[in-house]
Amino acid sequence: MQNIRSPQKYTPSGRQLKSSTKKHLLEDPHDMDKTTSSESTIILAQSTDESSSPEPQCVDKVLGEREPQSPQEVLLSLSSPKANRPTGVKSPSNYSSATSVKHYKTLQSMYKKRNPNHQDVSHLLNLEFQVRRAFIDSETIREEDRPKKILEAYPCFKDIAHVMEELQRILDKDNDSYIGDLKRRWQDFCQKVQFFGVSKKMLKPPMGMDKDEQALEILRVLPSLFPSMSAPPKRVHEASKALVHILKDKEDPDTYLKKRPLSCPVLIVCSSNCLLAVGDVPVTTFPKDKLDEGALYLMAYYCTLHLTYPKCVATLLSVIQTEVLLDKILDRDLTSSYKKSMAEWKAFSGQ
Q: pTM score > 0.70 for this model?
């Protein structure tokens, strides 16, 4: 996979904001010198605490000329006019590093308890959004290290509910109905996909199939309905393996993940439940009857962890991004395979 830096978006006031959504993968060889982006931008949530705090004397020594490597270092960078701030992040006038340090430490202490209160955690995540995204989106964190570093700093993101809420904060933070609307759009999309797949003779009519079987069939066929130009790695064989794997009898999920050549988020389905992993690291489990929402969970982790789409499913994930998440892609960043897939899709669905 290739990381592509997202260009900065200019607001009417001339301020630059870095896009915090998924970095897109260019599939066409002639596009390799171009950059990609999403039109979505970070909304820098300001602290309601207007108190100021003394500037740390050791900021420049700690950070030097490099990007912050932890949430604490991001706090230092935002509190010092001399330190090197993360690209695209501007310290608000009423920013208080002392308050944000308190928020982060409170969040960490809550996760030392067995069952932290979900609403309390969400409230702190709202308050700490700006610093968290600056840390996660820091381009000096290698992509292969990013999931581990983020989950260590924010264990709350092992909870799918918190990851879905983070997706909302990034894409449409003021829309309290976003997650519910998102799930309804996904259901509508899947219904159309079933007819689309039948018309292309890639799917059989779903009669006699239960909800779980239908969800698996849709995940299996989606990369073929919205194909990318790049083939999956040789040991993967099918592009759908970038999305989902069904465990065979007596197959061990840990053994499978260690042998898996892809490092992207994936759903592992067994007889009783589902496991979501990133790379070879199991992250969380969820009930099998929620498998029909599995693709949304994958997209939420891509967005929350700021990960790059695998080439073999880049077109599909870009389609889901624009059609379901409603996160636009700049025209200059659209690949030929995306344009072709969307033309066929819109012709079929009558858009």
A: yes
